[in-house]
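Sample A.
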Amino acid sequence: MSAPSVAELVAALREQGFVIVRNFASPPQRLDLLAAAQHDLEHAVAPVEYEADLKYPGAPRSREAEGGLTVRRLLDAYHRGPAFRDWATDPRIAAILREYYAGETPVLSTVHHNCVMTKHPAFGSLTGWHQDIRYWSFSDTDLVSCWLALGREVADNGALYFLPGSHRAAFEPERFDEQKFFRPDLPANQEWIARAVCPELAPGDAVFFHCRTLHAAQQNASSAVKLSLVHTYYPESCQPVPGTRSACAPGVPLA
């Protein structure tokens, strides 16, 4: 079976709010990224975010508690070295997003995502249903993220779950809690959650997903740390709102 075209990938992304691209990173490229991520994780190369800082379910109570220095994210991936910079601006990512944005130049956000996501077997937290746009401030809400699996990702080690089509829904504010997580106690929300899918990703697979697509992840029940690389992009006609965190660092156009 032939690989889907860029147009077919973009059509699926628009329809369901996410699309899987198999074997997106070549084995040498993935291995270079994995080695760099493992090095920075082992040495806790700054800037990092700790599980204890977010206090999601399953996280240590504080940095002083057992497991308190469990890293959740290696931040600012773009500036961590050439392997990360090359991936974030890869022409294949640019081609898919340029098609999605109807010919506009996609721009890499160096503020949102732009990180290596880690999911540890112990002290790695559960992430509830949410939309990434909840804390972002842009002139439009048509942002797309690219998530690269540096290793195998399945439900049991904390892979992403998605709610297909949720990016097109107009959810009332009361459907979310005070932290803007989608409330699983509401019957109307439960109907959506019943549609959840968890695509299995092989090493080197990528998933593109819309910033309004509801997604979640369980804790890691395996014996190994899961590592993923994620970046967010917006079209050049979309601008971060001045004075907000989204505007605190310049984006990088994908030429």
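Sample B, a different protein:
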Amino acid sequence: MKLSVALTLFAAQLATAHYTFPDLIANNTVSSDWQYVRITANHYSNGPVTDVTSDAIRCYELDSTSAGQTGTATVAAGSTVGFKADNTMGHPGYFSAYMTPASPAANSNQAGLGKTWFKIWEWSPTFSPSTGLVFASENIQQFTFTIPKNVPSGQYLIRGEQIALHVASSVGGAQFYIGCAQVNVINGGSGKPSPTVSFPGAYSATDPGILINIYSLPSNYTGYKAPGPAVWSG
């Protein structure tokens, strides 16, 4: 009985340490849960994706009905958007945001399946030999970023992600927390976003920003190397 209680408490602690990104921040408003963000497979467990080669690394949808049951928010190019988590994000890690044109529409299952994703923002830990890696992003509940002003108008998916690195010292240890919001961008420009990548495909399990022991860095370490493409600022 005592062992059963202990295991239950341990499982509860694990769940509360993890999180989802159910709410889109846009137009100075936080949406309701899963209003504009595709409901994810971890909406109850809060567990992360750990396999960068799986389809779950794209948007972590619950199933094929997630896209069609999710609304599409209208946002302006150049405006601030973001994601709010359902829990304090206590794990140290790297944050990023990607966009992809959504064809035929943001609420379609076909959106984002190709090599069409481009990175629009990232938040990396800082490093110095005296301090090691410093994660200013730790213990927050939301993160925001700007949609590039020159992104063409149209429907998109916005993919918010944190790669938690507290147990990333072995292959498959890094934890990916992901949410994909469906948006219609207005007042856009004529930019040509690049470089573009696919999910899966953008990451390797052995990328130095994914396979890393943040508590025991090599003596010649010079700083965090973000996985994926360079940021397109528009």
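Observation for Sample B: The first strand starts at residue 23 and ends at 26.
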